[in-house]
Amino acid sequence: MVTVIQRIIVTVIAGLLAFTSFSAQAKIRVFACEPEWGSLIEELAGDQAKVFVATTAQQDPHHIEARPSLIAKMRRADIAVCSGAELETGWLPLLLRSSGNKKVQINQPGYFEAASFVNRLEIPTVIDRSLGDIHASGNPHVHLDPHRLLIIAAALSKRLGEIDSGAANHYQQRYDDFSKRWQAATEQWQQRAASLRGAEAIVHHRDWSYLFSWLGIKEVAQLEPKPGVPPSAAHLAKLKQQLANSPPQFIIYGPHQSAKAANWLAKQTGSPALQLPYTVGGDKQANDLFSLFDVTLNKLLTTIP
Amino acid sequence: MNTHTLSVATLTLATSLALLHPAHADVLSSPTSARSAQTVSTSSTNFNPAISLILDGRYVATNLDELELPGFQAGGAEPPADGFGLGESELSISANVDDKIFGWFTLAIEEEDGETKTEIEEAYIESLGLGSGLTLRGGRFYSHLGYENPVHDHALDFTDRALVYSAMFGGNLLGDGVQARWIAPTEFFLELGVELTDGEDFPGSANDNSIGSTIMFARTGGDFGVSHAWRLGTSHFSADFDDRPNAEQADPNIAFSIADGSSDIFGIDFVYKWAPNGNPTQRNFKLAAEYFLRDEDGIATLNDGGNTATANYDGDQYGFYIQALYQWRPQWRAGLRYDQISSDNRLTGFDGGATTQTFAGLADESGLISDEDPTRWTASVDFSPSEFSRFRLQYSQFDSGQVNEDTLILQYIVSLGAHPAHSF
What is the pTM of this model? Predict the structure, then answer.
């Protein structure tokens, strides 16, 4: 009996090990917390990386369950690429601790926090929970400014070269190529978006601060009474009154937010409610970083031609 | 690497039981270069540990002053006390100690019978990214057995723990000892774990063993599409004890305990979660169920004025709960839970010794012989203004076969300070 059990155990373990060894190819395994970083890795690493994107555009990156499937992916990752600035504070630390993976721990090169490489907006001077769910490190939604994105891309490319030094040239070449295409695209976007400068917007949550700071759009209010607190009837009524004389150009919400509040206020004020993709996959056409910005600008420009 | 050398290598490894260091054919060696200098830490706590204080207050309307569970030795679980009162105030402090170790401490402060009682619920250190999917923990900690057991009181889906936990673990199981967990390097989630602890906590008890209890668990889980996630686990607990007295003695002059005993528990736990597009902020649903089977033996001992009467105790018990929670709009959630426990215990070989006790007297005092299957229904509605606060209204109907009582609870739970993430 014992020998049979031993044999079964040995067979199972041998199979398991063989399986994992075979599947470990020359590629690096990337755990991307959000779709924008998954796309950036695809730009920078191409076939050299096997990318797992932990969340979709339809999910709120503040509120993700530390699901078993995510722990399994983190366990095998060579690098975790996340926004940082406490965006993933409700789930990422748990994944890192549960994974037992040395490479992706906070003090290791396999841990990449995009927001830590750029200047952040809205760093609070007063930190108190009565102000809502605020981030002490500032606004973490950094990817919608193409200039900041390029800085992050440079840092990420360098990091990929560190953890996979054999392919460092490959990453450098891909970054150079990406950088050229990205700068040309940024130039174009800026020209197209010139008419948006000075426009006023209401946002559901402050997901768009970096986009607005780049395009010169002014954020006048949020649908959430406090960051992370769902829109309330009282707050919306106050907004309606406040905006009666000067309705903003658009009311913006993302694919993981309910359209209800935006639509209600749009009806009351006459300002159009606009769902922007926010990240890759947030719109059918937004399937990489380039099309994400294309679609975002197209949508904004429908209201201000 | 060709197939042959690979399989030989893995077999050799496997047979030498190097389970925890699978042969990674990683092309990447660990980099030695430090992190880029321009990296700015975005940690909010700097060098201060994360401090979290949970406040729990409630108003309870009940006639239940103790949780008598026929067929189960009293393990110390108590029902919420009638009237206004505080639940556990829970102070947790945690931080990375250095680059290798994480530390966690939880102190529970509770009022019981007019006295303030503090208890170290958890105080452990844990390895940080040891590698190979391995995590080691040492100190005092909530056992990772089952689904509900490691969950702190404030994070429970209902005000109180499931009946099967009250019956079999006297609330929940903790211990002083060590734990090893390993995540398999597979596409799907597979975790194996073992805990060696002092075994002093019920259903263990005082013992002279260097390792009082052994706990093993295995769990797997995954996603179905983007909206569904699940986890299935199994666990096993075993402990030997020298003497396990009743947590509550019905008659102060007569002491009942189980001596020279052992307790074995086998459990299965399942959790399923649904959220449209995997986005739980608007609507979500959770289903959790656990089943435990306990096999015990020992010598039922009644100490009556210095003399003892004994009988051989052979206990077979099981219990389960199933609960569902539905958040139908942001901040609002409703829950329903069904609990049942059942026992089939035997007392044989009665020896009255120098006492005047009869077998019936011992059986009655032990509370272990019962044909009843205690059940409980619980319904709740909660409102959470933010992630840091919750108000809950809970109604439950408990039927032990001997006692039938309703309990209504209005409760608040708030979290001050850094609030750590909750597990799945």
Answer: 0.87
